[in-house]
Amino acid sequence: MKTIPLTMLRHPVHLLSLGFGSGCAPKAPGTMGTLVGVLLYLPMQLLAWPYYLALLLLLIGAGIWLCGQTAKALGVHDHPGIVWDEITGYLLTMLAAPKGVLWIILGFVLFRLFDIWKPWPIRLLDKQLKGGFGVMADDLLAAIFSLTIIQIIAYTL
Fold it and tell me: What pTM value is reported for the model?
């Protein structure tokens, strides 16, 4: 896979889409990006859910453009270093999640599991869609799977 020039981090668009540099990790950049999502979630979890949702939608909308721009600059559709999709995917996973460290960990594990495994139809989206929307779509669907499981667990306990 094409190596990411660290000079790209000087550009605000690439800095964001590369997860503040976490996407430049030599191993498991998606996991590193998800950890950035956890760090962003910590203050965001204090927001009332309508504000959380509004901010999340803004981050997702921006991410479609950000990821598309960085994919073009790298010349690779969904370079592993582009991790804004993991960041927002984790934040979507945690929408209306119960508070607590165990929920944060469960959300992390579930999201990474679905993002890596890519069961149908996640894999289909990953292969079919292109551009910034294509970069984001499979991770957002993985997040919806994860969010659903968290909500089922939370409401059956």
Answer: 0.96
The one-letter code for the residue type at 116 is I
Distance CA 37, CA 129 (A): 23
Phi, psi dihedral angles at 18 (to 5 degrees): -90, 15
The domain locations on the chain are 17-156
As given in the structure block, the two tokens for residue 135 are 């970069």
Report residue 152 as tokens. 């089922």
Residues 87-126 have pLDDT tens digits of: 999 999 999 999 999 999 999 999 999 999 998 898 888 7
Round to whole Å and give the CA distance between 49 and 14.
29
- CB within 8 Å of 28: residues ≥ 6 apart: none
3-state class (DSSP) for residue 85: helix
Are 85 and 140 within 8 A, CB to CB?
A: yes
Q: How many helices (H) and strands (E) does the chain have?
A: 7, 0
Residues in the chain: 157
Q: Is 122 helix (H, G, I), strand (E, B) or coil?
A: helix
